Amino acid sequence: MSETFTKSMARNIYLGGSVFFILLFLALSFDTLGALPKRDNRHNITPQVALGKKVWEENNCLGCHTLLGEGAYFAPELGNVYTRFGGSKEAIMGFIASRPVDGIPGRRSMPQFNLSNEELEAVAEFLKYTSEINTANWPPNIQG
Amino acid sequence: MQYSSQAVAKPYFIAAIGLFVGQILFGLILGAQYVIGDFLFPEIPFNVARMVHTNLLIVWLLFGFMGAAYYLVPEEAERELYSPKLAIALFWIFLVAGALTIVGYLAVPYATLAAVTGNDLLPTMGREFLEQPTITKIGIVVVALAFLFNIGMTIISGRKTVVNIVLLTGLTGLAVLFLFAFYNPVNLVLDKMFWWWVVHLWVEGVWELIMAAILAFVLIRLTGVDREVIEKWLYVIIAMALITGIIGTGHHYYWIGTPEYWQWWGSIFSALEPIPFFMMTVFAFNVVNRRRKEHPNKAATLWALGCAVMAFLGAGVWGFLHTLAPVNFYTHGSQITAAHGHMAFYGAYVLVVITMISYAWPHLQHNAPAANGRAQLLEMWSFWLMTISMVFITLFLTGAGILQVYLQRVSDTPLPFMVVQDKIALFYWMRLYAGLAFFIGLCLYVYSFFAKGKESLASS
Predict the structure, then answer these.
(1) pLDDT, average across residues B103-122
(2) Do A14 and A85 reside in the same domain of the chain?
């Protein structure tokens, strides 16, 4: 690089640029926090949803599935599974509960997690809550 | 080796490579499970293997970063490490904690691990890449703080070079941002929003500082180019990395419930994110071409140039491919994401750690600037085998991703996820073969270590 562009100029761009964009990011994040109550479906967070999220996390569901597009890409998207299953919590519970212990020969199969009925209902309620978050119309269609 | 305390880097580098081998073995299991769905089921379900694969990656890269810091900080600061004993103690703590965590993943169901480790008290588990039990996370924080103290004390009381300051800034950022791993609200949108403060601001933020500092250190030593020139480049590169990367976080805020203005912020700034990686490539080739000496370690130069190029391709080009909001609407959470993730991590972080090891190891092991010609040749073969394999892994996953996106999300008659997975299985098979080739390259790399032997080149 040319001699007119000195190291201290480069350092100032680094320091000034970083500080400016960190502050801008914080400002945008702060604004986002203010906008979220209208989008994130928080009024539907019940103790049951909280339990559902805990069951979701403690069985590492994200290790195979995506949720709002984040997670692993081995199994279907679940952010809209409540809608895909026809708005039926029973269908979700039935699917999870009926997974064969030894899997399906040659095919991918969800493990049998031996969830209690309370846990099953909570997970289904959590997925219902998730499906009602305003995600700017993502995913593009019902297949997730 | 100029300072005897640099030797503490040795166990860190050995552990890094050992865990790297483990990471790739589990990668092969995952690749097989994509096409043979019941492979190792129910003993090692996909989610467990994936957790091991990604967590081993993070842990061995951290070992690599710490080893790199222990090697380069004393040399830059022109003094011995503040406390070599602390460095060795931290090594064992980190290794044992890491090993116990991996054993926990494999030995018991994840829910049992959560119960045994008291996840109820402070629930942090079950989120991508942050699956570690809460006590492991606390252990990571303790190790990170003690590590920062050790190198910080070394830097403060020694010569303060730009390389050292930038490295310390990056490592401090790494430790501070990890604290968001402990924030896990029930509100899923908030959870996801701040989860990215760890994940994105690590790999597209502070880790780039670490990477650029390591690369700058190695290139100063390999090329003999004036430090002033390289430090100026370093500042410009990390300036661009942070200027683009911080607001670039917005490309994760398109579809998770956050406001839609992020589609503009994210698209514009992350479209600029390839710039620092491109500059890194120009920088690396520029200083190698203007080298003032012929360093005998040709292999290290190859790794350094390969690192810059592959980081640009993987993080820059493959990142740009799906970063614009209208494109990402269709590609979000598909195999395109997986393709980008593989090449970006390999190019930017795997290769920078191996570059450092390649440069430092002859000094550490033989007190010589380079290994013998045969060992270097093997090492360079392993570079090409691993790198070309990774290019193919990425291309096959990209092919799978394009088809997946079309069949599942774009076509007039969208097909269900599992139906699409069957239709694109050919690409998964090809990816698995490319993965096996990568593993052969890795074996060659490990072998080249033993071939470095006694007859190393004398000091030049």
Answers:
(1) 97
(2) no
Asked if B233's CB is within 8 angstroms of A103's CB, the reply is no
CB contacts of B268 in chain A (<8 Å) are none
Mean pLDDT of chain B: 96
CB-facing half-sphere around the CA of A86: CA atoms within 13 A: 3
Residue A24 sits in the same domain as residue A3: yes
ipTM of the complex: 0.97
Which SS3 state, helix, strand or coil, does residue B187 take? coil
Q: What's the rounded mean pLDDT across residues B275-291?
A: 98
Residues A46, A14, single domain; the answer is no
In three-state secondary structure terms, B406 is helix
- Specify which residues A104 forms β-bridges with: A107
Q: Omega into B259 within 30° of 0, i.e. cis?
A: no
Please tell me whether residues A73 and A103 are part of one structural domain.
Answer: yes
Contacts of B114 in chain A (CB under 8 A): 57-58
Which one of B115, B119, B128 has the shortest CB-CB distance to A70?
B128
A contact test, residue of B40, B41, B47 with most A CBs within 10 A:
B47
- The CATH number linked to A124 is 1.10.760.10
Q: Are residues A55 and A117 in the same domain?
A: yes
Amino acid at B276: P
| Alpha-carbon distance B414 to nearest alpha carbon in chain A (angstroms) | 7
Query: Is B277 part of the contact surface with chain A (CB cutoff 8 Å)?
Result: no
User: Per the structure, how many domains does chain A have?
Assistant: 2
Q: For residues A49 and B186, is the Cβ–Cβ distance under 8 A? A: yes
The per-residue pLDDT for A1 is 58
What average pLDDT does range B421-431 have in this prediction?
98
> Do A124 and B390 form a contact (C-beta atoms < 8 A)?
no
- Reported as a single tens digit per residue, the pLDDT across B124-138 is 999 999 999 999 999
List CB contacts (< 8 A) between A59 and chain B. Answer: 110-111, 126
Q: Do B110 and A58 touch (CB under 8 A)?
A: yes
A54 and A8 in one domain? no
End-to-end CA distance of chain B: 13
Which of B169, B332, B334 is best to mutate for the A interface (most A CBs within 10 A)? B332
pLDDT higher than threshold 90 for residue B70: yes
Residue A19: predicted pLDDT: 98
- B93-111 pLDDT tens trace: 999 999 999 999 999 999 9
Of B228, B239, B409, the CB nearest to A140: B409
| Mean per-residue pLDDT, B388-410 | 98
Q: Domain of A96?
A: 41-144
Q: Are residues A82 and A34 in the same domain?
A: no
Dihedral pair phi/psi, residue A104, rounded to 5°: -120, 125
Instruction: Based on the fold, state whether residues A30 and A98 are members of the same structural domain.
Output: no
